[in-house]
User: What shape does this take?
Amino acid sequence: MATAATTVTAIVAAMALIPTYAFTTATEAPSSAVGTLPASPVIPQVPTPVSGVVIADPADLVRSLLLIGIVSLLVIGAAGVTASWVVAGRVLSPLTDLNEAARRAAGGNLHHRVRLSEADDEFRALGETFDDMLDRLERSFDANERFAANASHELRTPLATTRLLLDLASRDTMSADDTAELLGQIRTMNERAVDIVNALLQLADSSSAPPDLDEQELAPVLDEAATEVAPLAAHLDVDLELRSEPGTARIDKLLMRQAVTNLIRNAVQSNIPGGHVWVSATTTEHGWSITVENTGTAVSATELARLHEPFYRVRGRSASPGVPGTGDSHGLGLALVGRIVERHGGTLGIESRTAGGLVVRMSLPHATPLAVG
Assistant: This one.
């Protein structure tokens, strides 16, 4: 509309200001009822000289309109192309930044960010989404690298110890009692390596296989988990208290029992003699809240931030020989719980208690989506 209005205005202004119109028309002499008067002598008219463009007939008008229209079209077209080029460049410049960020990410550089500072529009929203994706990818790759390094370190220790013990066993100077003790140590190291591998497989399975979600009572799940950890709690002189509201939740029973068992075992192992562990399951506005709270030593903010990392231990390795369920802590418990809760569409929160210990809370939605992949 703006271009059309400009064109019409230009043509009208040109036709009103530029040409000098000199149209001539023939007129007939008036007739008389009485008679015909003698014709007056014709005085020849001398054309008045004019300057500029003269339109003498309609053909000249059409040609002038055509000429001025073409000139106006060319001028307006050139201005439109120039303005469109400038505007399109400014509008599409964020896509150039996004393309550059995508190219760097494809080359392995996940540290670059778009950070569009233009107006709050769709391009900025796309840039923020792209930056968020890069953040998640960077954290994921960093976590995978740390996981691989930590897993290698965890497996290297028992394997190196086993090799040393085998070198000692190959000597002929060892007595029968020393040999038996050495074989027991080798068996312990081998079991530890097997436990680490099994924990890694459980962590991988919890991320790959889709959960078998079904309506299940939560109270029996918590009871089974508490029963499994009860011998460890009794051995470490830790009081275990369980409270659960009646109701069902859409869960995978095996995975959820494993998650609750890991939380209770961690709460018992990181406790103090004569301490307490409180396990509860309550309904909330958004779903279920499964809470495991324990007494213990104070946990710093730095340690609290790293509890989600695989292989991280606050108190190091702890084991109680001869007591069921008290094997070495591989630092995979909370990592595995986090994966299980994520597969159920929930969230895992960890807080430190003022008096010492932790509060770990699993929040599960009412209608749990089936997470795949």
Summary: The CA atoms of residues 215 and 284 lie 17 Å apart. Helices lie at 2-17, 58-106, 122-169, 176-208, 218-235, 253-269, 301-306, 333-343. The longest strand covers residues 276-283. Residues 316-328, 368-373 have pLDDT under 50 and may be disordered.
